[in-house]
Design a protein that fits this description.
Blueprint (H helix, E strand, L loop, with lengths): L2 H21 L9 H12 L28 E6 L17 H7 L2 E6 L3 H10 L4 E4 L1 H9 L3 E2 L23 E2 L2 E2 L2 E13 L11 H4 L9 E4 L5 H11 L13 H15 L2 E5 L2 H10 L4 E5 H9 L4 E4 L5 E11 L5 H11 L2 H11 L2 E2 L13 H4 L11 E3 L19 H12 L1
Helix pairs in contact: 1-10, 2-4, 4-5, 7-8, 9-10
Length: 419
């Protein structure tokens, strides 16, 4: 594991998160006037989740191609660590070679949350975005993203099949993006505080947990789905089959579990450098985490272990999407194929700390154990990992005899829980 790289990217992510918190989500200047104007507009635009009665059929056609000469620039929104140009570490640069090969100048803005990403896309001026599953359907149903012609992305052929045409990156069998990478949300514990290995979320949710006051949980409305995953295993009578498709009774049960958990919480986390510090100091004994957090904590000498819980887990798979009205369509497609190509996807996955989406990337990582650590090609590992998705009023599990609670109401309920 390249711990120096991971520590640097953790610092970058922390700085971005703190900047967003301090500035209320304001944006730094982008490299083009269009991107800068889009950022300014996004600052005033609400990041609302459309409450959909019946999701519309995909609007518009995918770009027919062929991919031609680039327009000279591509305006990119991305998670910190996904688009590196050597400024963080001179040895880490897959942006400059892209610019040299294509003539497409990269204008980058990073964001700290999915809500921020949605706001920025809604503001306009962007060509592509790396969107997590709790943003993708908001962009699709909000008419902010266009279908993707995978025939124009040769590297798509090498993407793991179980990441293609998922409920969070496609509609009615139409792809709206190219998978980038993935990770599972794990239960992690400090081995000085928790003496026996853990394989369950029970110690983070149940009222009789011996770790009351030292439990942590991810601070986001999407964490409601983590409670739903636990209920799927422990209260099957609720009938939950998809943690992002909760009718009112199921949603109320998840919120009741989270209210119960709140008494156990020492602190919620969103900045994962602070989560690492809390685990390593013992302030946090147990809670939800990511594999990259476990690796970073151990690299700093922390006594922590992490595993996927027996009840299953939520997780994330990010998708490169093309915005609906991009004027730089050729550069956008060139970027999509570049960023998920075997060599570049290997670099990104290793730098950021995730499983690559491109199956051929596993042979190209500098750390030959990287894909094993992140379970990249283990299809069975991912069968009970429920990737973040955007809840909609039309139930994502296929039910038509009831309505489900949409994301906007998840956000309202989470805010009330945290108040």
């Amino acid at each position: 594991m390249h711990t120096k790289r991971l520590l640097k990217i953790a610092a970058v992510g922390s700085a971005a998160a703190m900047m967003l918190a301090a500035c209320g989500g304001g944006s730094e200047e982008a490299g083009s006037s269009a991107a800068a104007e889009g950022s300014a507009a996004a600052s005033a635009a609400p990041a609302e989740s459309p409450q959909i009665e019946e999701p519309p059929a995909p609007g518009g056609d995918a770009y027919a191609g062929p991919v031609g000469e680039g327009e000279g620039q591509v305006n990119i929104l991305a998670w910190p660590g996904y688009v590196e140009d050597g400024s963080t570490d001179p040895a880490v640069d897959w942006t400059t070679p892209f610019e040299e090969a294509t003539g497409c100048q990269v204008n980058l803005k990073t964001f700290g949350t999915s809500d921020e990403a949605v706001k920025l896309v809604q503001g306009g001026g962007w060509d592509v975005v790396s969107a997590s599953g709790d943003a993708t359907l908001r962009l699709i149903y909000g008419d902010s993203a266009q279908p993707v012609n995978t025939d124009l992305v040769p590297s798509y052929a090498d993407i793991f099949d179980d990441l293609k045409l998922q409920k969070f990156n496609s509609v009615n069998g139409v792809p709206y993006g190219i998978p980038h990478g993935r990770g599972a949300n794990l239960v992690m514990w400090n081995t000085d505080k928790v003496k026996e290995p853990i394989d369950s979320w029970a110690y983070t949710f149940e009222a009789d947990s011996p770790y009351a006051g030292a439990v942590t949980a991810y601070d986001s409305p999407i964490f409601i789905a983590d409670a739903a995953v636990y209920l799927m295993a422990t209260q099957p009578e609720l009938g939950i089959t998809d943690p992002y498709a909760l009718d009112q009774a199921q949603f109320d049960a998840a919120m009741a579990l989270l209210e119960q958990q709140k008494a156990l919480i020492g602190e919620y986390w969103s900045d994962y450098t602070k989560a690492i510090q809390a685990f390593n100091s013992g302030t946090t004994a147990i809670g939800t985490s990511w594999q990259v957090i476990a690796n970073l904590a151990q690299a700093e000498g922390g006594k922590v272990e992490a595993t996927k819980a027996k009840e299953g887990a939520t997780g994330w798979s990010d998708t490169w999407m093309v915005t609906k009205d991009t004027p730089n369509i050729n550069c956008a497609y060139k970027w999509l194929d570049w960023i998920v190509s075997p060599e570049v996807n290997a670099q990104v996955a290793e730098w950021f700390g995730e499983a690559p989406a491109n199956a051929k990337s596993c042979e190209l990582t500098a750390d030959k154990d990287h894909c094993a650590t992140y379970h990249a090609g283990e299809a069975d590992y991912w069968t009970d990992v429920y990737y973040w998705n955007t809840p909609t009023a039309q139930c994502l599990d296929g039910r038509t005899d009831t309505q489900c609670v949409p994301y906007s109401e998840w956000a309202t309920a989470w805010a009330a829980l945290r108040s």
